[in-house]
Each structure stands twice: as C-alpha cells, then as structure tokens.
Amino acid sequence: MLTVKNLTHWYGKSEKPLYENVNLSFESDKVYTIVGSSGSGKTTFLSFIAGLDKPQKGDIFLDGTNIKKLGATNYRKHKVAIVFQQYNLLTYMSALDNIMTALSVTDSEHKGEKQYALDALKNVGIEKSDAEKNVQKLSGGQQQRVAIIRAMLVDANIVIADEPTGNLDGENSKMIIKLFQDLAHAHHKTVIIVTHDPEIADHGDVKISLENCQFVVA
Amino acid sequence: MNYLKRAMLYLTHKKGQSLLLLLIMSAILVFVLSGLIIQNAAVSATNSVTKSAGTTISVSANRNKMFSKMRSGTSKSKPKTITTPTVSNEKIKKAGKLNTVAYYNITNTASVNASSFDTVSTSTGTSGGGMGMKGGASAGDISIDGVSSTKLTSAFVSKTNKIVSGRNITTSDVNTKNVVIEKELATQNGIKVGDSMTVKMTSSGKKSLKLKVVGIYKAKSTSSSVPGSDPSNTIYTSYTLPATITGTEGKSSTVTYILENSAKEKATTKKIKRIINNSSFSVSSDDASYKQLLQPMKNVQSFAKKIVWLVAIAGTIILALIIILSVRTRQREIGVLVSLGESKFHIVAQLFSELFVILIGAMVVALLLGSFVGNKVGNQLLSQQQTTSVSTTSGSNGGPGGSGAPGSSQTGGGMRGGMATQSAGTTSAANKKTLKTLNTSITPSSVIKLGGMGLVIIALAVCVSAISILRLRPKDILIGE
C-alpha cells in the first residue's frame, strides 16, 4: 500500500502552498484516478509518488517504509512503473527492445525473456513483426500500449500514468483504460492515473479530485 | 539489455550521427598518431644520428706549444726551425681499438721535389713560368699526403677528388711507395697506372725515391691553399711514406678518430688523451656535424610534441562540446532511463561505451591514414628544419674534414700545414649524409599511446558532459506541468 502523509508543497518562494497536509492511501487491485484542471498540481503530485521529485514537506510510505529510505533510484527501479502522455519510449529501439531494456534495468523476474515480452505485446494486438520494428514506426495507440506493457511486465507493484490517453483517439483511449483496469484487477497492481478528462476519471475504482489545493476522494 | 547493448543499438540506429562522430574522432586521432609517429621517428632518428653522425676527435700538434718551444730553444746565430711533434703509431692504434672508435685516419705530410717528371704550374698574372717547371725549390714542389685511406679524406668524401683510374690508397699500402697522383700531372708527364716516378727528398742528402703509381685521381678544385702551388702537385700515399721521408718512421703527426656514437665523445676524448699522453699534442673533438644533424631532429621532435598536445586538447574540447550537444538532444532518452530506475552512472557508462566503439573505429582509420599523413608532415617538417639549419650554418660549416692536419716537414723554417689541412683532412661518411627522410612507421608503442590518448580524450569529454547528465532532473525532462 502506498501512503502519503502530511504532504505539503509550494513552488519556490510562493507564500501559498500548492497543497497542504495531504493524506492519501493507495491500495493494490484498484485503479485510482486523480482529476483536476490544468495547473492544479496533479502532475507535480504524480512526480512525488513516482519518486521523480521530492515534496517540500511530508512523507510517502510504501508498505510502511519511507521511500526516502528506499532511495529514489531503487524505488523507481523496483517499486514503481510510469506511463507518460508522450509514451517516452526509447526511440532508437524496437518495441521489443524497449521492453527488454525495462526488464533488464529493473532487474525484473522475467529479465531476458524475449518470448514473454512478445506474448505480452501480442495480447495487446502488437504482432512480432510490429514488435521488432523501430518503435517510432508504430502508431500512437500502439506506442502507448507498448509503454503500458513495459509498466506491466516489470516487477513494480505501483503503476503511475500521466494523461495516458492524452494523445489518443476515443477507440484507443478505451483500449488503454481497459489495459489499466487489467493491470489492477488481473495483475494485482496499484494503478494511479492522472487525467484532466472527467470521462477517463470515471473509469477508475476510486476517483480523487484536486480542487482548491485539496484532494477530495469521491 | 544492459548499457553496452544499448550503446550498440544507439550507434547502429543513429548511423549518420555515429558516422559523423567517427569522422571527427578519426581526424583527431590521425593528427595525434601523426604527431606520435613523427615524435617517435624523430627520437629514433636522433638516436641514429647520435650513433652515426661521425663525431671526430683529432689528435694534432699543439701549435702554441710548438711556437713557444721554437722561440725559447734556439740560439740567435742559428735560423729558427720548428719541429712538428710526432706520436708513435702503436699509441695511435691502441686508441683506435677503443670500443667507441669506428675507424681512424692517420695523416702525415712531407714535401719533396719532382725528379723524373715535371710539376704542374698554374700561371697567374705576371709570374709567368707556365707548365714544366722543374722541381728543386727548397721547400719541395710536390706535396706528399700520407693517409690511412684516401677514401676517408675529406677531399675524396666530398668528391672534390675522384679516382678516375686505378685504385685508392688503403691500409694495405702501409710501408710501400704506392702513390695516387692527379690526372693533370699524369697527363702532362704521360704517366699511367703501374708506371713509376722518381722524387728527390729535400733533405737527407737529396736522396731519390722511386714511387709506384697505383691510381690517378681528378681534382675538381683548381686552387691550392699554398700560394703558387697547383693542387695537381699533391700526391697521395700511405701515411708511412711521409714519415720515412721526414725520418720519423713508426710515428705520425696527425690522426683523426671517427666515433661510433657521438654521445661518447667526451669519454673517448679523455681516453685518447690518456693514451697519447703527450703535451705537444692537442686532442680536440668536432661534433659540428652531429649538432647540425641533431638540431632539426630536436625541432621536429618538439614540434611533433606540440602537435600531439594541441590536437589532444582541441580534440577533447571538440568532442566534449559535441557530446554535451548530443546529451541535450538525448535528454528525453536519459529521462526515460532514469524513470525506469537506471543509475546515472550506467547512463554515463553507455555514453562512454558508444564513444569507445567509435574510438576503436577511429583508431583503425587513424592507423590506415596516420602513417601516410605522418610521413608527409614529418618529412615536410624535416626538410623545412634542415633548410633552416643549413641557412643558419652556411659559411661556417667546415665539418670535421676541416680540422687541421698540420704538415710534418722538418726542413726549412716553416710549416706546410695548409695544403694538408685542405686535402688530407678526414671526414666521416656520415657527415655527408643528411637525413632526408624520417622513418615514420607505426610502432606498437605508438598504437598503445594512441589508444591511451584516445581513451583519455573520450574519458575527459564524457566527464565534462556527465556534469550535465548528473544535473538533469527526470521530472523536468519527462513531466511538463
């Protein structure tokens, strides 16, 4: 379980905090959606729970251990997987190589298992021929699916997604949301999706709204 | 997939960028290698020059001592005479056996009068006389230059004198009356190789000596240092004959030692002094040719060193800038890897590995082109340096051959030293050798040095660019608010 305790953050010398004393808990097997308007600080919050940045105050605990103690690199490597709006795949590689790289870097259980990666890609509609193509030759929807498979196959229990459907059409968005739901419900991961789209937010098991510097659990 | 495989994937995917980096690094390494091989070549050439420049050590009469002796030891009634000191041939040979001595040339001179033939006379101005002046002057009208070998004398080495018929005087002519005469003298008197000619000594009851002609040489020079004398009147023979004429058998007045290794000059001079052990002689060394050959080498060496450093520093800066720019364009990739939990050390290691692979390729290119470029640049540099060296030394370059070999005439009141100085002076063959080319071959040590320098260059370039990688915050790269 991921627990946020008394998280307070403000930018630079700003007198008014972005949010103050935030206390939230994220459990496994659930999809959490955090919705808020642009500039509300939802992505900044995501960067804290993803271990990409540190809040001014407060702590984040993973199964009772402070992530500061785990170390940011170690936390990112073994505990959390991130899916970005811009897919953030390694552009000089194929879809398969991207996944193999993630498995290797995170020292995952299935490290080096090419067939395992190919099977997972096939499950989301990416055949071997496409999987071995340079990733830039795939469509946006395919690239995002690759990014999700990358997050799914690594051992991390927490999957954090930042506007994962932002660049996708309706059809592809639905497919991606389905994949996230599978990650939580079939693979028993904690999925936290940050979005400004209320429709996407409704697909989560728990919806958290960020309004007036307050996180409100619906 | 570890960082090494990622590095290979990156290089194969970004072919254009990799090729560009390869070209830049190749250019840097070609110049570094050229500098290294020029430097190596200059070092080995310097060593070779040190060994073969032919520094000479001359043992000759101490003129100051000779003259002061002459002034103090003669009575007012008698004419002042001067006796050229001599040293035993045994001592000369003993010194010649020193390990550092390559070879030596003994020179003795004497003057005699022509008897069975006419001397060659060159008329100048109103002096008249023309050809066919019969010998008989008190100082002798024929110069007998005794040498160990005519081949070793400066006049023959410099090709001022050249054998046109018969052979040279060699060490096998010791204790014989074999001579080599000038072509003009031979033609004028109808003398051929194998003929005999007679000379009369200027002292010892004007005894006649029958000489056997074994060779005829042609003298290019038409002037002699002895006024009124023609160079055609110089007869070369073994060093033993003038000693016989002057009554100093088994002794010689001048010897020149040519060293194996110029670096041993001081030590050898000391040893020779000790062996000769005669204060009437001065033992002097002449390493002008060594220094003359050495200076361009040193200049080339120093220039090559500067090339290596300059290119290495410039190369590091250029590569570092390129990598810094490349890191900027690869920020997202770095961010992705960081978000996956990759350590920044591994990201820097990937960058280093990419450059290392390019370095290997560049080294191959450098090894293929470096020798050619090094050869061209090195020899161009050498020829420039030698031109400079020659122009700065022209007019003063006498070389070892110019070292004095005073005559040994014991008759009359003067010394015949000038002609001997010009004609019988010994010169080393190496003196006439100028280093026209550098042996710019690639040695294993230059390949190792090149690899080492290449590694240092990429390591420094990666270190500089690593600063920007380490400062990168993944959140700033990957998540825009």
TrEMBL record, chain A:
<dbReference type="InterPro" id="IPR017871">
    <property type="entry name" value="ABC_transporter-like_CS"/>
</dbReference>
<dbReference type="GO" id="GO:0005886">
    <property type="term" value="C:plasma membrane"/>
</dbReference>
<dbReference type="Pfam" id="PF00005">
    <property type="entry name" value="ABC_tran"/>
</dbReference>
<dbReference type="GO" id="GO:0016887">
    <property type="term" value="F:ATP hydrolysis activity"/>
</dbReference>
<dbReference type="GO" id="GO:0022857">
    <property type="term" value="F:transmembrane transporter activity"/>
</dbReference>
<dbReference type="GO" id="GO:0005524">
    <property type="term" value="F:ATP binding"/>
</dbReference>
<dbReference type="InterPro" id="IPR017911">
    <property type="entry name" value="MacB-like_ATP-bd"/>
</dbReference>
<comment type="similarity">
    <text>Belongs to the ABC transporter superfamily.</text>
</comment>
<dbReference type="InterPro" id="IPR027417">
    <property type="entry name" value="P-loop_NTPase"/>
</dbReference>
<dbReference type="InterPro" id="IPR003439">
    <property type="entry name" value="ABC_transporter-like_ATP-bd"/>
</dbReference>
<feature type="domain" description="ABC transporter">
    <location>
        <begin position="2"/>
        <end position="218"/>
    </location>
</feature>
<protein>
    <submittedName>
        <fullName>ABC transporter, ATP-binding protein</fullName>
    </submittedName>
</protein>
<keyword id="KW-0547">Nucleotide-binding</keyword>
<keyword id="KW-0813">Transport</keyword>
<dbReference type="InterPro" id="IPR003593">
    <property type="entry name" value="AAA+_ATPase"/>
</dbReference>
<dbReference type="InterPro" id="IPR015854">
    <property type="entry name" value="ABC_transpr_LolD-like"/>
</dbReference>
<keyword id="KW-0067">ATP-binding</keyword>
From TrEMBL, chain B:
<feature type="domain" description="ABC3 transporter permease C-terminal">
    <location>
        <begin position="307"/>
        <end position="388"/>
    </location>
</feature>
<feature type="transmembrane region" description="Helical">
    <location>
        <begin position="447"/>
        <end position="470"/>
    </location>
</feature>
<dbReference type="InterPro" id="IPR003838">
    <property type="entry name" value="ABC3_permease_C"/>
</dbReference>
<feature type="compositionally biased region" description="Gly residues">
    <location>
        <begin position="396"/>
        <end position="417"/>
    </location>
</feature>
<dbReference type="GO" id="GO:0022857">
    <property type="term" value="F:transmembrane transporter activity"/>
</dbReference>
<feature type="transmembrane region" description="Helical">
    <location>
        <begin position="307"/>
        <end position="327"/>
    </location>
</feature>
<dbReference type="InterPro" id="IPR050250">
    <property type="entry name" value="Macrolide_Exporter_MacB"/>
</dbReference>
<keyword id="KW-0472">Membrane</keyword>
<feature type="transmembrane region" description="Helical">
    <location>
        <begin position="348"/>
        <end position="373"/>
    </location>
</feature>
<protein>
    <submittedName>
        <fullName>ABC transporter, permease protein</fullName>
    </submittedName>
</protein>
<keyword id="KW-1003">Cell membrane</keyword>
<dbReference type="Pfam" id="PF02687">
    <property type="entry name" value="FtsX"/>
</dbReference>
<feature type="region of interest" description="Disordered">
    <location>
        <begin position="388"/>
        <end position="427"/>
    </location>
</feature>
<dbReference type="GO" id="GO:0005886">
    <property type="term" value="C:plasma membrane"/>
</dbReference>
<keyword id="KW-1133">Transmembrane helix</keyword>
<keyword id="KW-0812">Transmembrane</keyword>
